[in-house]
Amino acid sequence: MPASLERRLPLSCFIIAVNEADRIAPVIESVVGWVDEVVVIDSGSTDGTQDLAEKLGARVIHHAWPGFGPQKRYGEDQCRNDWVLNLDADEVMSEELIREIIALFAEGPPAHPFYRFRLRLVYPGDTRPRLWADFHNYVRLYDRRAGRFADSLVHDNVQTGDIKPIQLHCDAWHYSYRSFGFLVEKLNSYSDLQAKSIIKQNRAALLVRLPFEFPLAFVKYYLFRRHITGGRKGFAFAMINSFFRFLRIVKLLDALDARRK
What we know:
- By secondary structure, this protein is α/β, with parallel strands linked by helices.
- The chain has two domains: 9-174, Spore Coat Polysaccharide Biosynthesis Protein SpsA, Chain A, CATH 3.90.550; 180-260, no CATH class.
- It is built from seven helices and eight strands.
- Helix 5 (180-196) runs parallel beside helix 7 (231-260) and helix 6 packs antiparallel against helix 7 (231-260).
- It is globular, with a radius of gyration of 19 Å.
- The termini are far apart.
């Protein structure tokens, strides 16, 4: 617990997890002690994630996997505080971000309901983000009375309505991939989910995108998202993600063809 913090913030941190025993400890350790509670929603781990999380001070609840959005909505419901902090089992709070959030609560719960912060990517095997690391920028600190996670199987974003989130200055670190093999498996599974959850897609537009998806995605990842600063790992990351952008189009077309039969 930070030395300047006399009591825990009126804030619940909830984490969804399955088979995360190899990497969830730093996540819990980065929040336990300064938030009021840590809640882990486990969907059936077989590697000891539950016992490890409990030993680190988290309250563990089993809930069968219903999809990303529904699982996070369930997590919101299990928290005893209206102010919640959501982390995934591979996202570690930096000391700077912790201090920034503690300062927000210095005079009690913040007046504004939504705050977002950057999650900077850390390559497999690295301990820190690379120079100019790319990031996702999500609402993860919020008052659940004002907004909830979307009820989507694939997308897990907080719905803020017409209220603009406030941007926090400091970052969390995102250890998203255990290995590049894990990255391939994760993107393949994610593209399967996207194909299954399609509501309406323009087949002609997908066919037009098909030959251009890979090269344009590579330019986006390697240059505009600055993986060019990541050396060999940056090149591999850009290539893998670009291929799966292409594969997603292929799977969507297959799903549309199957529905027409």
